[in-house]
Amino acid sequence: MHNPLADPQAMITRHHARFTVLTPQLIRMEWSANQRFVDEPSLVFLDRRLPVAQFEVRTEGKWLHLQTEKLLLRYKESKDKFTKENLEISFELNGKRVAWQPGKRDKSNLLGTTRTLDAVSGATQLEPGLLSRKGWALVDDSKRPLFDDSAWPWVKSRPQGEQQDWYFFGYGHDYQQAVYDFTRVAGKIPMPPRFAFGAWWSRYWAYTDQELRQIVEEFEQHNVPLDVLVIDMDWHLTFNLRWWNKRVDQAGQRMGWTGYTWDKNLFPDPTAFLGWLARKGLKKTLNLHPASGVLPHEARYEEMARAMNIDPATRQHVPFDIANKAFAEN
Which residue among 164, 186, 208 closes a domain? Predict the structure, then answer.
């Protein structure tokens, strides 16, 4: 079980600021205008109840000094947000002292990922990652939603009021330590299943189930391995979607892009087809673009509308809202 509440012995609170020593290389830094700090798990950080790392705290004038085995944090007590004037963390890298302050840019960050590739053609902007040649990374968790404490933990908004919620990783060139510390607070990273590393077949084309069967059989005839069959979006009703067709649906999306109802012209017996793939030992996936929610033409529209307190007689679409627990359950 995850425990988001850090050991009180690992916390240092100074009026509007709270610092939590999570590991010798990782410090959480919170600032709150109303002095209300967050102990619930966030969308990223689930576990903060770690063994208390050794650290020392002392005060020099108006400055708080927090020293771990690897990091030295200096904070000038203030009602103001964290800035380069009141906060600094330093550590040793290649025999030299490196100092970080809020707002410091890092052009050596090795970058992470991007939320979506929708409408991307060519290069795209990536988010900062955890690893950097500069030896540090700052993860800003201030605006990410939290989880509640229900049996099925669900997202909820953060408390009202201005706040900063930062995690500083100062690992030097020990990148394995950085990733390890991340997994301790964010949870273990599951290994992808073996089939994910195998051969996938995918093409955006309006195939029939018989044509897909033929493709699978040709792989077998030529002794070419196949692990995953991607059935692109024409498995559902698309209303003759074409790039030059600019019709939009109730959600303002391109008509036919979203769908949950099988196109029986192409797949007259979906259950039989999927069963055939299973007997072949293949994994299968259906391509889906959910932005339009559930539209009135869908086979299960009436059930979904009622579940979301929409009168089916209105023929109003059910907006896509995956953050809504009722929507996700239905």
Answer: 186
